[in-house]
Amino acid sequence: MPPPTLSVHDLACARGDRLLFKAMNFSVKAGELLLVQGGNGQGKTSLLRLLTGLSRPEAGEVRWRGEAIQKQRDAYHAEMMYLGHANGVKDDLNPVENLRFAEGLQGRAFDKARATALLERLGLGRCLDLPCRVLSFGQRRRVALAALLLAGARLWILDEPLTGLDVHAVALMEGLIRDHLAGGGLVVATTHQALNLEGLPVQRLLVGHVAIPELA
Amino acid sequence: MHRFLLAVLRRDLTLAARRRGDWLIAQFFFVMVASLFPLGVGPEPAMLARIGPGVLWVAATLASLLSLSRLFADDHRDGSLEHMILSPEPTVLLVLGKSLAHWLIYGIPLLLIAPVLGLQFNLPWDAILVLEFSLLLGTPILSLLGGVGAALTLGLRGGGVLLTLLILPLYVPALIFGAGAVDGVMAGTGAEAHLSLLGAFLVLSLMIAPWIAAAALRVSME
Fold first, then answer.
1. In angstroms, what separates the C-alpha of B210 from chain A's closest C-alpha?
2. Contact indicator for B122, B151 with CB cutoff of 8 Å
3. How far is B73 from chain A (nearest CA, A)?
4. CA-CA distance, A41 to A46, in Å (whole number)?
5. B185 vs B176: CA distance, rounded Å
6. Do B88 and A86 touch (CB under 8 A)?
C-alpha cells in the first residue's frame, strides 16, 4: 500500500457564484500537521469538507495514498475521522452510549472498557451516565473528541477543535495531537486559538486573501 | 455491514424510546383525523363503512408524513449525519436502516391502532383483516418513499411543506391499492389483485428508494 499521504492538486472551491480559492496544492505526510488559517468566511471549513469528501471540488482533486478519494470512498473513510462545528453528539444519550453508536456507525465492535477509560482521561469520569443534554458545551466537545480517539483513524480532519474547551482541555488536546503525530498520524486542523506546537512538523496554509497575524 | 445496519436501527429505536412524546404525536394525529370524519359526515353506519377504508388510509399517510420531516433533520442539526455519511459503510444502508427504524416506530403502532378505528367505521372483520394486511404492506412503502423526500428537503427552509408536496403524489399508488383492497373485499370482488400490486410496489420501493435517497442525501449535505 502506498504511504499515507493526503495531497491536493489544483483544487478550486466555489460557494454559489463566489470562488473561494483556486489552484491550491499541498501535501501532508505521515507525522505532519497542516494548520489551515484564514479569516472568517475565507473557505477554511469548505476546504475541510472537500478533504473529507462531503462536498465535491469545483476543479482539481483530493488524493489519499496517491489515489483520488472519490475512487476509494470506503477505504478512505475507514482511515479518516472528521470533527466539524457540530459535535455529532446525541443529547438524549449518555457519553458511553454516544461512543457505542459512534463505533457501530463506523461498522466496528464496541470496546466499553476502552471507551470508559478514554472518557475518564478526557475528564468526563463523573458524567458517564448523564444524558449529554445536561452537559456543558465544552463537555460535549470532549465527548466528540473521545469518539475521535476511539476511532483510531490515521487522518484527523478537525474544524476548530478547541472551540469551547478550557485551558486544561486545550493542553490535553495539544498532547493528543502530539501523540497522534508521533504515532505516524496526520492532522489537518483549523483554529483561531493559540496552540503550543513547538517542535512539531507544522505546515501552515493560508486560505483566502486576508492576512492574519501569525498564531503562536 | 450487518453491524452497521443494526447500529443504525438500535440507535434510532433507543432515541425514540427516550423521546416518547415525538412518536405518540403521530399516533394521536392518526386517531384524531380518522375520528373527525364520522363527526363531519354523520354517524350513518352504511356510509361510514363505505368511506372507512379510504379515510383510514389517508389518515395513515398523513400521520407518516408528520414524522418524516425529522427523519434526517435531527441528525443533520447535531452533526451526527455527517459522521454517518463519512462512515466506511455505504450510505444506502444508512438510509435503509433509518427507513426501517421509522417504520418500526411509526408504522407498527399504526397497525395496532387501525383495527380499533376500523370498528369505529363499522367495518366487518374480514375487511379489518385485509386493512391490516394492506397497511402491513403499505406502511413500509410510506417510510421508504418518505426517506427520499426527507433527504431531498434536508436543510431547506419550509422543508416540511415542500416534503408534503413532493411525497404525497408518490404515495398515491399505495393509497389506491391499499384502500382498494379493503373496498374489494367489502364489495365481494376479493382483495388479492390489489394486495399483489401493493406488494409489487413495496418491492419496487425497496429496490429503488434507498439509492435515490442516498444520492439526495449526499447532494443535500454539500
1. 17
2. no
3. 13
4. 9
5. 14
6. no
pLDDT in tens, chain B (222 residues): 778 888 899 999 999 998 888 888 889 999 999 999 888 888 888 888 888 999 999 999 999 888 888 889 889 988 889 989 998 889 999 999 999 999 999 999 999 999 999 999 989 999 999 999 999 999 999 999 999 999 999 888 877 888 889 899 999 999 999 999 998 988 888 888 999 999 999 999 999 999 999 999 988 888
pTM: 0.89
Closest CA to B64 of B124, B114, B15: B114
Complex ipTM value: 0.85
Question: What is the chain A residue with the closest CA to B85?
Answer: A54
Of residues A56, A75, A101, nearest to B11 (C-beta): A101
Beta bridge pairs of residue A14: A19
Contact B3 A104 (CB under 8 A): yes
Q: Does A101 touch chain B (CB under 8 A)?
A: yes
Domain A6-206 CATH superfamily: P-loop containing nucleotide triphosphate hydrolases (3.40.50.300)
Contact B78 A105 (CB under 8 A): no
Size of interface A-B (CB pairs under 8 A): 89
Q: What angle do CA B46, B48, B49 make, to 5 degrees?
A: 65
User: Quick check: A194 contacting B, CB < 8 Å?
Assistant: no
Orientation of helix B20-41 relative to helix B108-120, angle to 10°: 20
Residue A156, C-beta contacts closer than 8 angstroms, at least 6 positions apart? A80, A81, A83, A148, A180, A185, A186, A187, A188, A189
Q: What's the Cα-to-Cα distance from B114 to each of B79, B124, B198, rounded to whole Å?
A: 36, 13, 18
Which chain B residues contact residue A84 at CB under 8 A? 79, 82
| Of B4, B8, B79, Cβ closest to residue A87 | B79
Three-state DSSP class for residue A198: coil
Are B214 and B94 within 8 A, CB to CB? yes
Contacts of A97 in chain B (CB under 8 A): 14
Cell numbers placing B112: 395496532
